[in-house]
Amino acid sequence: MSRIFKFRNANRERPLAQIASVRAAFPGLNYRVTRQGGVEWNGRLRPTDDSPWYVIRILHALDRAPRVWVLSPPLTPNPPHVYASDSNRLCLYWPEEWCWTPKHSLATTIIPWAALWLYFYEVWQVTGEWLGPSSHHQGEK
Predict the structure, then answer these.
(1) Separation CA 31–CA 19 (nearest Å)
(2) Residue closest to 100 by CA, chosen among 141, 59, 70
(3) Separation of alpha carbons 109 and 100, rounded Å
(4) Secondary structure of 14-68 in the HEC alphabet?
(5) Per-residue pLDDT tens for 48-106?
(6) Does 37 have pLDDT greater than 60?
(7) For residues 90 and 11, what is the distance between their CA atoms, to the nearest angstrom?
(8) How far apart are CA 99 and CA 76, in angstroms?
(9) How far apart are CA 4 and CA 93, in angstroms?
(10) N or C: which end of the chain has fewer CB within 10 A?
(11) CA 141 to chain centre
(12) What pLDDT band is residue 34 in, cutting at 50, 70 and 90?
């Protein structure tokens, strides 16, 4: 007897489904499957040819939008557009303006946005002003 597998919820996160597209677009990122069925990505990302290589971590857990951290080099203290309460997790978008769904690709959204965040972070270090996209919302830095 064969059984056809059906997803109970079409909007549920499926981090494993992202592996092929991320590996194709970003071969410098390595992954491991977590015990809970999510995927943790680690590797190097460089926003421009003149930029240093940054080691990033992306955690894409089941039923949770992907989260991104810079592991090295260490970020300057108190950088803009991070969640300080979550070990300086990068703030790549404001959830009230855009919401991650399982239909989105890490390879075309979260990872390129992390590279853009790093670019604007480098500009901020020079100018003291965040010149990247920003939402005008109150709340955590």
Answers:
(1) 8
(2) 59
(3) 9
(4) CHHHHHHHHHHHCCCEEEEECCCCCEEEEEEECCCCCCCCEEEEEEECCCCCCEE
(5) 999 999 999 999 998 888 999 999 999 999 999 999 888 999 999 877 777 778 889 99
(6) yes
(7) 24
(8) 28
(9) 37
(10) N
(11) 17
(12) very high
From first CA to last CA, the distance across the chain in angstroms is 55
Total count of residues recorded for the chain: 141
Whether the predicted model's global pTM rises above the 0.90 cut: no
Radius of gyration of the chain (CA): 16
pLDDT value of residue 95: 77
Output the six-digit token pair for 18. 């992202």
Residue type, 55: V
Q: Can you say whether residue 109 is alpha, beta or left, with left for phi > 0 and alpha for psi between -120 and 50 degrees? A: alpha
* Token representation of residue 12: 């549920």
What is the C-alpha to C-alpha distance for residues 117 and 113, in angstroms, rounded to an integer?
Answer: 6
Lookup: tokens for 87: 């070990």
Nearest to 40 by CA among 54, 56, 60, 24: 60
